[in-house]
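Course assignment 3, question 2. Fill in each field.
Student: A.L.
Task: Predict the tertiary structure for the chain below.
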Amino acid sequence: MSKIDSPHFQDVLTPELNVLSEMFNRYGFEIRIAGGAVRDLLMGKPPADVDFATTATPEQMKDMFTKENVRMINALGEKHGTITARINDAVNFEVTTLRIDKVTDGRRAEVEFTKDWQIDSNRRDLTINSMFLGLDGTLYDYFNGEEDLKNRKVKFVGDPVTRIQEDYLRILRYFRFYGRIATEPDNHCEATLEAIRNNVEGLKVISGERIWMEWKKILVGNYAAELTLKMLELGLGPYIGLPANPNLQEFERVWKASQAKNIKLNPTTLLAGLLANEEEVLDLHGRLKMSGAERDNAIFIIEHRQDQPHPDDPLRTYQYLQVDGRTKDTSTFIQEVLAYKGELDLLERFKKWDPPRFPVTGHHLTEAGV
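Answer field:
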């Protein structure tokens, strides 16, 4: 059994965590680090969030924390088995009871609590997310997640069809983690792709907000275009708001140009390459429930990506757009158009340009009695 003793792991072992751990041990419960934090530590990264799993039920945790005068916050997680404890009035710890997903409908699950670590590990999505880490550094790996991580393989735990049908959002999560873990853009397991292809229709029951949350992360990660194109090849397009015939050539062109020039594109800036007009943006927005600024950014890019440069100075085209702009986001949208077009020199000039200010304000008009 592997053990971890890296500097990042030692950083996790704060005095507050030691208090929490000692408390669980004293009451006869096990507690371990779970999921993504274990993956990050094995990759030599400091974990962004550290979640914990335990053999204690929510009622047992509440009873223990009450006896120990530990404040509990965010009671909303309790129905999923999660209790959030605040230690030393300084640090919050989310601790979730080991559980079995008894009934699933592709979106949510009815859970039953267990004390079996492997059963809980088995219900998780990907092998690289299914590991636990004891606070002594012992790695508990029931499905070869460590080996998959070393080989940069992204695999579902057990049968991919079963895992996907438990929550169809896992299709998007697969691609997001592929972008984070894999070292090649198209080295997927054929059985995984076949499972996705045969279950894409299940995405109909997933809310647009959840889909967009995952897809946004794909679009700013490694292989954003390759993964999006693979998603479309497998049939995801109609279920994530895209038109029947998205402009794959333009999308790929924009992506390649951004990579060649090391330009970081906003997610909807890149997505605009797939879309032909405002109507297609609005259809996408209707499915994904993007923010107003994200929607308007895509519309602005489509409206202005073909604008011709001013004969006297190419920058003047965008200066006029700024002066005529009707929203506070106009400057940002113009910068995204220039990034989309790969016009780095113009982009830098535009950032440094100080727009003229109209000398008469609303206060002046009020004072003049207008």
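Instructor remarks: The chain is about 45% helix and 10% strand. The longest strand covers residues 91-97.
Grade: pending
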